[in-house]
Amino acid sequence: MADKREPQLAYSELQAKMLDEEQRRTKARKILSVLYHFLGRTDLSGLTVADVGCSAGFIADELAGAGAARTYGFDIDEPGLTKARQRFGERVEFVLASGEAMPLPDESLDVVIFNHIYEHVVDPDAVLAEIRRVLKPDGVLYLGLGNKYGPMEPHHRLPLLSWLPRRAADRYVRLFGRSDAYYERFHSRAGLTRMLAGFHVWDYTLSVIKDPGAFAAGDLVPGPVAKVPTAALRAMIPVMPTYLWVASKSATGPRGRRLAPPPEHHRSPAPGPVQPLVSATAEAAPPGGPVLAGLRRAAETVLWTRVATQRALERRRYPDGRPKPTPVPPTDVLRTVADWQAAVAECRRLRLPLHRDRQKNWDALGAVSTVVNHLGAGAAVLDADAARYSPVLPWLRLYGLTDLVGNNLEFGADVRRDGVLFRYGDITATDFADGRFDAVTCMSVIEHGVPPGPFLAESARILKPGGLLVVSTDYDQDPPDTGNHLAYGQPVHIFSPGEIKDLVSLAGEKGLHLEGGLALDHPERPVFWKRTGLRYTFIRLTFRKQ
After folding, report:
1. In this structure, how many other beta carbons lie within 10 angstroms of the beta carbon of residue 229?
2. Which domains does the chain have, with CATH numbers?
3. Is the pLDDT of residue 297 over 90?
4. Which of 467, 440, 465 is nearest to 455 (CA)?
């Protein structure tokens, strides 16, 4: 469902800071400093550049002043454009046009600026698709990006505002007299990564924080912050208020001097069809923020302390190895409530720490049973898009596996828990070597906006021949209407039988062949998601790399 917001046609009349010339030119100097480093240049001579969302034109004027051969400013802010043309029209071409439809030929721009704009546009995915169209193959896109989980919302200056579901946010801004409704739509770091579909991205955030003088960022980085250890800053990345990214369709990276820390490079998922931004009345499962992060850290501390203690005690209790899980079909559907209750009972029998959502013990136990019974304790396993408090990796650790890794776009610095490595990473574009793992598990992830093609291709690449991919996802033989619900910034999605068959077919094209039969019926809907009121079930699929 498309977002119901109306475009902000005269933003400069709503926000006086858009007319603050000193502040806007300071931002422009920071933007230029980052661009100069990335491009290995000291000016923009010979380049065609554009500022998307230029408003009164101060940043566009600085781009022209940096020597650009041709400079464009695009906006739907007509009052702002009128002011811009009056002052800077002789060297900047200001165009009344939406970022979704710029009147330019394909691959005509060398540099595009998209600075703190995405939260204001109705469909940022469509704008990014249009930027991709007009950007040259080796062109560069500068992005200043607000983070949904930054502690202080930047427009209304209300703490935690952007974390809230839409209706609660509307009430919050009205309560403090800021506005009648909360207009802006921010994404988390993971959502921003998906928004940049198909781009190579270099994250300059920490590079700029650690050396603000080199990047004209004194307004952004208070002096003491630059002295905070890099490891501590990296751990704060999920709640950093602003990200400074440079993106390109090309994999050619920064050409400037070596930075400490260097800009972090990652490849966003390959682009799919442009989807409109979703308007939601319910955020089903917010992915994080400091409060939830604190609760999760406490949960993971308790969990991993138990795992380490239990392993020490079990060396004597089970000198020949702990009892293995009962073998299960490699591919299966959760058919009844009794099935997940039996899985919980099995976990208790095996002394495995239970997932707090009892239903999820069914698919986690199935994945662990498959790995332990088919691959053994010497297997190298990646839990894709893991959480440090979820059960798969702790359970495998109890079974003596030592080469265990979990990755997630929400992670900051590398963290080890009882020998298990948790690290930042995109499950559709990892930096692991070919054939690195014997198994990849991915529990209840792909329904949250993960593009299946790139995910399956990447899993096939990093699996050894004969390796296993175990995936679970939300499923129903007749999927219920999910309404406007969001989970992790994406529309709630429940796979249908046809979509599961398509997924299996796509996996086969990537060299991953389904293990076991595909029986898709279920007499009950044994899963109930209280936050959404939805009833459905789970499916677990196991593929073997040929």
Report:
1. 10
2. 11-148+186-274 (3.40.50.150), 328-545 (3.40.50.150)
3. no
4. 440
